[in-house]
Amino acid sequence: HSLPVPLSSGNEVQINFVNLGYKCNIHFLEHIQINLNIDYSRRGNLQIFLISPKGSLTMLLTLRHKDSYVMGFKNWNFTSVHLWGEDPRGHWRLIVRDPKNDTQKGKVTKATLILHGTDKPAGCLRYGPRRYQDEDLISQTIDRTPVLRVYSLY
């Protein structure tokens, strides 16, 4: 499957980035960048999550009730350092969701994942990965609704 991918209220799409990171020297992430084009009739309804090859869940965008912009996101960069130190090699999953039950619709027309990192671990990781107090709160924001559409990008 390829983009564009349709999306509507009460639904989600999952876009897969497979076999990433094997042809580069990045073994320890510093940050990730997702560049997206999303045409959507109410931008504030959207949630965006990224799941790393190790299973770490990162929220890139939460619901914004006062954001009624009708043009979506054009060449928009979402970044995170949440995955600092992880090995980026493998299968990444991007989830774009509209959990509202209304009549919004649109499509994801571009999704590019860019990995930034090094081939050696940062000094702060020599004693193992960091653990943050509120880290478990992120998984509570995603319900267990099954993924309705899965697309793979190569």
TrEMBL record:
Keyword field contains Hydrolase: yes
Signal sequence annotation: none
SUPFAM superfamilies, per the entry: Galactose-binding domain-like
Matching PROSITE patterns: P_HOMO_B (PS51829)
GO molecular function, one term: serine-type endopeptidase activity
Cellular component per GO, a single term: membrane
Occurrences of domain P/Homo B (ranges): 1-121
One GO biological process term: peptide hormone processing
Keywords assigned by UniProt, alphabetized: Hydrolase, Protease, Serine protease
PANTHER family in the record: NEUROENDOCRINE CONVERTASE 1 (PTHR42884:SF14), PROPROTEIN CONVERTASE SUBTILISIN/KEXIN-RELATED (PTHR42884)
Family that this chain belongs to: Belongs to the peptidase S8 family. Furin subfamily.
Protein's recorded name: P/Homo B domain-containing protein
Organism, as annotated: Oppiella nova
